[in-house]
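Service request form, structural biology core

Requester: graduate student, group of Dr. S.
Request type: structure prediction, single chain
Budget code: on file
Notes: please return the result as structure tokens.

Sequence provided:
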Amino acid sequence: MKINILFLLALVISAFFNAGCQKLENLDKLEVSGIDAEYAIPVFSTDFDMGEVLDNFDENSSVFFDENGQAILRYFGDFTSSGSEDIFAVLDIINNIPVPLADTVSALPFVAPNGVTLDYALLKTGGLRYVFTSDHEEAVTVTVSIPSFTKDGEIFSHTLTTTPYTGTLPVAGGLLSPLDLSGYTLNVPEDSIYVEYSAFREVSGFTDTLKAFAVIFNDVTASFIQGYLGNQVFEFDRDTIEIDFFENWTEGTLRFEDPTINFIVKNSFGFPVRSAINVLDVISVNDDIFPLSSPFIEAGIDFAYPQPDEIGCIKETNFSFNNENSNLADLLEAVPKAVDYDIDGLTNPDGNTAIRGFMTDSSLLSVQVEVVLPVFGAVSNYNVFDTIKVEGFDFDVDFEAYGEVDYAEFKLFSENNIPLNIDLQLFFADENKRIIDSLFTEITPVVTAASVDVDGNVLEKSIEEAFATVTEERFERIKEARNLFLQARFSTPENGMRSVRVTADQNVKIGMGLKVGVTR
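Core staff response, request fulfilled:
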């Protein structure tokens, strides 16, 4: 449901047309007010409090009341997250690449990109194949050991026996199907993976070397890694938070006393991450762009992260841009229609290699941004304009039996416990939206703000009456109306200089009556 500053007035207008669209065929049965030819006709009466207004919104509404009854406008951006795929990709440097061994004991270089130094990884999947040739004229038993891979305290080892070399082609040995490495721990001391092999000649009993030897790893993935995990960038989608509360604004000023733009960050990566805010702009209803300024945009926001004894835990960071650390309140005076933001996360931003971080294959960094506008502030000459479609609008009045109508007078009555002045004008328009008349000669005070104390809390309700006289000729024109153009002007007490609070228990009662004078 879209929510804007015309919502309360829409309720009133709705009540007016639901209760007031009646045929006046029995004027002689109506209450006489003063003289025989003058009749008072109740048109509508409605009352509601702000808490009841909340019930009209669905659960995803952007308006709610806090535990103190304070009305709050809240607008959420889309939930966005970044996972661990990029960092886990460091293991790809050993996948599907044959690595020849220069000796029976070899250190395979493991130099990860982006400054990552891997201490160890728990493997989720992985396979190993090794191939060699032998020119020994006797069977050879080959054993491959990889001290860098351990499981249940045992290093990885595999043995097979070759056939003798017959003097034609060297014997090719090895595995067509990879050996399973899942569940092993990969240790990477000094950025190397250590591999050993031995060749035992079965007849002579000697240990020898092989003419060629190579290993191939494939589909090596991890469920957990630890080390210095480098300077990575978590990229999040750019998003825009639409603020529809001001969509019908035409002029005037409005100031919120305690607005915030909140960042809600959830992090299960076990290393430092700092925000990099690329864009954080307020966009006005006039499409002007106002960048938010704050020391925290330049310096970044450090996100909480789990410690080594908190693997699997999620740490939450709640940070607010507010009046004290930014120019947010000044920007919102421009009457916002949206907040545009683009944020990234930088890992290990200080480059401290002594911090040995960790991550799992389910680690996640998520960010949600919200704009929170407590309805505590000041309004001055805040004008809005809207169109309301009138379904079944019909003042089909039969005056012939009672003579001509001299005049008709509308009376609006309000008892208001909300600290807001409302001046109103209704323009009646035909089916082509051509204005044919108006309720008042000019925009007219209809609701007077309740009085407030120095803290903006309501002290006493206000009572207001407004009148609009309509001639028979004008009444005939109004009968043709199918659309209404609604113009409203809002202000808080003291000409918009006093900040006020809107709470759930504040209420307003508005009624309308029609008095007609006829000659027989």
